[in-house]
Amino acid sequence: PGRARMGLRRLLLRYFPPGIILEYVEGGESKTRPIDLLDLRPDTDVTALVEEIQKGEPLITASCLEHVIHLIRRLQQKLGEKENHKFSLFKVLITHILPLTNVAFNKSGSRFITGSYDRTCKLWDTASGEELRTLEGHKNVVYAIAFNNPYGDKIATGSFDKTCKLWSTETGKCYHTFRGHSAEIVCLSFNPQSTLVATGSMDATAKLWDIEKGEEVATLSGHSAEIIALSFNTLGDKIITGSFDHTVAVWDVGTGRILHTLIGHRAEISSAQFNWDCSLIVTGSMDKTCMLWNAVTGTHLATLTGHRHEVLDVCFDYTGQRVATASADGSARVYNAETKKCIAKLEGHEGEISKVCFNPKGTFILTASSDKTARLWDAATGHCLQVLEGHTDEIFSCAFNYKGDTIITGSKDNSCCIW
């Protein structure tokens, strides 16, 4: 009888990171369950892989085996495709009169937002370069901004006026103003389910806010200095905060309680992130190192060394198998998260690198530097593939869209370039 109530409705492909989403009905309710294929390679034996999957997944019955094999072969094809890595300057947008603070894409990259010292956030159409709306209402610098990806129908803005505002992307209407912090908000993030927004502040706390109700759900107190980085895991059940107090805290989102404090860095934290399957946390610090931690137990696993100056940014690739670091020493590095070995050094920038990110496929790395250029690198070899030139001042932000065919860079010259 349990069988009769569980039925597979359809299978969906997920390209980044590779996987298949099972859509099924259970007790009359529609549900989804992902099968992650993080280790899929162009030469994987798909038939053997599917037999393995079938053993542990009752929803995949004999009747849909061929279909599953077909889908995984499509993922393999995608992995094997040679990508065009030549980006050309598409548009230069002079975005604000006063300095820019941040830029962010929606998932598809069709739109992006900019925050500024002029106290506004602007929404832009990527293809036309047109300004779609100006979100006005903050009484001070709009510093942290985000879309509620993958949906993209809401925007959150965090300001030096100590408030966070939630806006409709479509109408530009302000749904809520979240008040409660006693100092500047410098980082924020939506949870993956888009039900909460988290804000981090110079008041040493982070807060969780309910998007629907427009009210505070929890205050995460425990740090003894400013929180400058925060990040949810993919499940949305945990959040990490990185602070000037040299520690990173892991919190339970449901209860607002602290689960672990990651102690080991000897200077301020610059960035912190979970990997895709929520098993690891990477942290970067002004102490010139990057550390890997077990996200479940909070145990220190490794210290990734090699940089001569502060590590200003760290990130995982989509599958969580590699870590990229960006440093004030003008270089970036790639480490294997399993072996903890440095697999590539990205050398060529003439100034500090403040941002680093992988393209969704994990084949390229993008860096943004104070030398007024962004660079595109081969993630496997560390070769520089391209120098993105055009800005006339420091570049502090860079991002790929989900397809990986569009790049946005934000600079102190007040312009955004679309590549």
Provide key terms for this protein.
Dynein assembly factor with WD repeat domains 1; flagellum; four-stranded antiparallel β-sheet; cytoplasm; 35 strands; 419 residues; WD40/YVTN_repeat-like_dom_sf; mainly beta
Structural features, described:
Pfam families: WD40. InterPro entries: Quino_amine_DH_bsu, WD40/YVTN_repeat-like_dom_sf, WD40_PAC1, WD40_repeat_CS, WD40_repeat_dom_sf, WD40_rpt. WD repeats lie at residues 93-134, 135-177, 178-219, 220-261, 262-303, 304-345, 346-387, 388-419. One of its GO terms (biological process) is axonemal dynein complex assembly. It comes from Campylorhamphus procurvoides. This protein folds into 2 domains: 7-31 and 42-80, no CATH class; 94-418, YVTN repeat-like/Quinoprotein amine dehydrogenase (Methylamine Dehydrogenase, Chain H, 7 Propeller), CATH 2.130.10. It starts with a helix and ends with a strand. The protein is mainly beta and 419 residues long. It has 3 helices and 35 strands. The model has no long low-confidence stretch (mean pLDDT 95). Helix 2 crosses helix 3 (65-80).
Distance between the termini: 55 Å
How much β-strand is present in the residues? over 45%
User: Major sheet: size, sense and barrel closure?
Assistant: 4 strands, antiparallel
**Name of the CATH homologous superfamily of the largest domain:** YVTN repeat-like/Quinoprotein amine dehydrogenase
SSE order and pairing:
Blueprint lengths: L1 H4 E9 L4 E8 L2 E8 L9 H11 L8 H16 L10 E4 L5 E6 L5 E6 L4 E5 L5 E5 L6 E6 L6 E6 L4 E5 L5 E5 L6 E6 L5 E6 L3 E6 L4 E7 L5 E6 L5 E6 L4 E5 L5 E5 L6 E6 L5 E6 L4 E5 L5 E5 L6 E6 L5 E6 L4 E5 L5 E5 L6 E6 L5 E6 L4 E5 L5 E5 L6 E6 L6 E5 L3 E4 L1
Antiparallel strand pairs: 1-2, 2-3, 4-35, 5-6, 6-7, 7-8, 9-10, 10-11, 11-12, 13-14, 14-15, 15-16, 17-18, 18-19, 19-20, 21-22, 22-23, 23-24, 25-26, 26-27, 27-28, 29-30, 30-31, 31-32, 33-34, 34-35
Protein name: Dynein assembly factor with WD repeat domains 1
GO biological process, one term: axonemal dynein complex assembly
Subcellular location: Cytoplasm, Cytoskeleton, Flagellum axoneme; Cytoplasm, Cytoskeleton, Flagellum basal body
